[in-house]
């Protein structure tokens, strides 16, 4: 944490408490990252067993969220942190919620994988799913890396990548809607792909949220609801 210049504490235990919060967050992020990867693979490989694994892991993600929330509350109550220390606790708390919601979206993708196996594979949309899935998985990985290193530049890049995901998602939607209009018999199965793509787009949104938390943590800037260009400007001027 030295590279963030967090407040120096009389209590070494306080430093240990903050470091533990960070460690637990990154561990939770690793679980969610694998959950997302497995969910996309489950659709591509028509693997219901892998999809079921993703859904079971969601219980672990939920438990980690509850545990981290409790630990953040304990640190706030016992240490009454200020300045960068307080931002650290708040950033972990907010990022934890976003990770849990990513897990929820991964679970939804897994449900779509099972539905496709039961109803028959969709005739279109798998290329788009893999393409957007790859971008989103890299975003999540970069976000966790940025949090681990308090790297604002990487956090800003994640925000830029989210805009790319939005563009790819809209393009995929246009193609899939056109396909369903041409072949109405495919609507039910293609809709499962559409819902999976929608979940990936939301995971990208949550990755951007965490990137914004990192900017707040390191720079003390609230960049929510700002454009990427404005975020870059504020970070540069800070």
Give the mean pLDDT. 93
Number of domains: 1
Q: How many helices does DSSP assign?
A: 7
- State the end-to-end CA separation: 20 Å
Helix content: over 70%
Overview in brief:
The protein has 238 residues and is an all-alpha fold. The protein has one domain: Methane Monooxygenase Hydroxylase, Chain G, domain 1, CATH 1.20.58.
Structure description:
The chain has 238 residues and is an all-alpha fold. It has a single domain, classed as Methane Monooxygenase Hydroxylase, Chain G, domain 1 (Up-down Bundle), CATH 1.20.58. Helices cover 84% and strands 0% of the residues. It has helices spanning 12-44, 48-79, 83-119, 126-149, 152-182, 187-219, 228-237. Helix 1 (12-44) packs antiparallel against helix 2, helix 3 (83-119) packs antiparallel against helix 6 (187-219) and helix 5 runs antiparallel to helix 6. The protein starts with 11 loop residues before the first helix and ends with a helix. The model has no long low-confidence stretch (mean pLDDT 93).
List the helices and strands and how they pair.
Layout: H1 12-44, H2 48-79, H3 83-119, H4 126-149, H5 152-182, H6 187-219, H7 228-237
């Amino acid at each position: 944490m030295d590279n963030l210049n967090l407040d120096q504490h009389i209590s070494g235990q306080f430093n240990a408490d903050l470091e533990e919060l960070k460690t637990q967050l990154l561990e939770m992020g690793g679980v969610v990252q694998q959950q997302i990867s497995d969910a996309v693979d489950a659709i591509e490989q028509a693997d219901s067993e892998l999809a079921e694994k993703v859904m079971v892991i969601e219980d672990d993600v939920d438990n980690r969220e509850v545990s981290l929330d409790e630990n953040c509350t304990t640190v706030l109550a016992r240490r009454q942190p200020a300045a960068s220390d307080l931002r650290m606790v708040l950033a972990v708390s907010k990022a934890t919620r976003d990770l849990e919601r990513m897990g929820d979206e991964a679970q939804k993708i897994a449900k779509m994988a099972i539905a496709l196996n039961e109803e028959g594979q969709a005739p279109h949309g798998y290329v788009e799913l893999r393409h957007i899935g790859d971008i989103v998985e890299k975003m999540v990985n970069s976000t966790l890396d940025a949090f681990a290193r308090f790297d604002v530049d990487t956090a800003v890049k994640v925000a830029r990548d989210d805009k790319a995901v939005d563009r790819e998602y809209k393009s995929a939607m246009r193609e899939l809607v056109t396909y369903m209009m041409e072949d109405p018999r495919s609507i039910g199965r293609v809709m499962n792909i559409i819902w999976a793509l929608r979940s990936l787009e939301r995971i990208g949104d949550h990755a951007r949220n965490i990137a914004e938390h990192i900017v707040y943590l390191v720079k003390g800037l609230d960049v929510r609801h700002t454009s990427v260009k404005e975020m870059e400007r504020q970070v540069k001027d800070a």
